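Predict structure. Chain length: 435.
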Amino acid sequence: MNYTVAIVGRPNVGKSTLFNRLTETAEAIVEPTAGVTRDRKYGEAVWQNKEFIVVDTGGVVSDSSDEFEKDINNQVRLAIEEADLILFVVDAREGITEWDEGVAGLVRRSGKRALLAVNKVDTSDKEYLSAEFYSLGIGKELYAISANNGYGTGDLMDAVTKDIPAAKETEESDLPKIAIVGRPNVGKSTLLNTLLGEERSIVSEVSGTTRDSVHTVYNAFGKKLMLVDTAGLRKRKQIENDIEYYSTIRTIKTIRQSDVCMLLMDATEGVTRQDLAIFGEITEANKGVVILVNKWDIVEKNTHSVKKFTEELKARIAPFTDVPVFFTSNVTRQRILKALEAAVEVAVNRKQRISTSKLNDIMLPIIQNYPPPVIKGKEVRIKFVTQLPTKSPAIAFFCNTPQNVKEPYQRFLENKLRENFNFSGIPVRLYFRQK
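Prediction complete.
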């Protein structure tokens, strides 16, 4: 999912409402106060099997002396710079303003493909309101829409996705993609350089050096794979400038484009909240994960240190604890190749297909011996199990009352799946459907 669409425009034209509609979420704050959307917010959108990233931006304000508004304008310029397509939104009810003209100039100067969405056209008899916006000189046609009720957004989405290949065609190769992720300055670039034996990525003591993702084809264990080094993820309040903010979005995009993430943690700092947040990003995207506790060579330790650290780590990443953990050092190369080998194995197992007959032969006797609890006198009967045709493992259980299969029993079934099949490092989604 590489295609990026940036939504731009002056304040209060409905950018965040359109963002929410395109991504089918309510993530962007919708508020009739200028400047509410301070940072760029990103989301995923799918239209006719075509996937893309949507970035919502703060409103552009022309000739503003307000430092805060200057910051918003900076963010918008960066979003435009990174975008493949600019979606310029204006307000049909208010007509063209000098701010709209200022944004139009910014869009035209970018040289990027752009579409003009004239918002707040709720019905076809209001479309005449959009005619004057042709004078802004953005594209050969405009799109009269209502971000609020969805009027006209289908035609807009067709135009947005015109140049995007269908999802199955977007994969650059069949090589397993292993992303190296983690907080700034935990040793990601050094790990890549150590594996490659060359200075492929810039290594610096200043956190935030890597702002783009670096892709490298690598031969390991008789297999070719793609190694991806990324900018470090940090807490949003610690992000000091726009470039670093956008590098965070690129990193999250890289996670979502990968098969497996090698998550580096700093052994000298223990398990931090941000480590857990990145782990959450990986599992939410249903990617494989291998954890590397780096800088282990400089930690004061005894015979119980590995066990103690592992127990603390798994307690904090629970309930998904079936994750390979390696205590590594970029300096001594300790366990680095073993961690990479595990990541390759996770990538292979993530694509495994388990036959329906094998799933039922193994899981149905377990369910019969340990059935779900009776809910309000109603017995839950699971009759059939199958793997769904998804990119990451998803197992469907067909039963009479799926709503009565509660979380503790779901965890029990997941644990039994993990005992019988190699899903180490791989999130497994369970679905309960009406039989």
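Summary: The chain is about 30% helix and 20% strand.
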